[in-house]
Amino acid sequence: MLIQHVYENQVVKASQRISAAFLELLEQQFPIVEQQPIRLRSASQFADNLNIHVNHLNRAIKVTLNKTTTQVISERILQEAKILLRTSNLTVADIAYVLGYTEATHFNNFFRKHMQITPTRFRTVWFSKLGGMRKISRFISDLSGVRCFFNLK
Questions:
Q1: What pTM, to 2 d.p., does this model score?
Q2: Residue 11 pLDDT exceeds 90
Q3: Residues contacting 101, CB < 8 A, separation 6+
Q4: Rounded-to-integer distance, Cα 133 and Cα 14, Å
């Protein structure tokens, strides 16, 4: 019983170390600078980089994060895609390229599968909402100016 507990504790600690190393490798690829595509996109590429078998990596991620390795990678790529769509002037094709997609259509399909909206539509909706927020902000600033003019608080 005690030996089993010690063994299980060692397995959890090993899984935590592997997961931490995996997450560090994943995060090192972001944020995207310049237009260099990310190097690691698949569980097997990460496992090779960590010098472990892909099944070992998958097990460690599942134990510690309760997600598959592919889910973790996809979530991070999706997060970066949304950031790039909101903050950069890159085309959708360029964003697809820097996120490691050889075809923009594959990126479009990935994005639509996870967001139920195309990347182009996501960007359009984001900027239309942002434009509305800017109008509200300008209106509030205009009101502040009126208040100052009339000495109102």
A1: 0.78
A2: no
A3: 107, 110
A4: 48
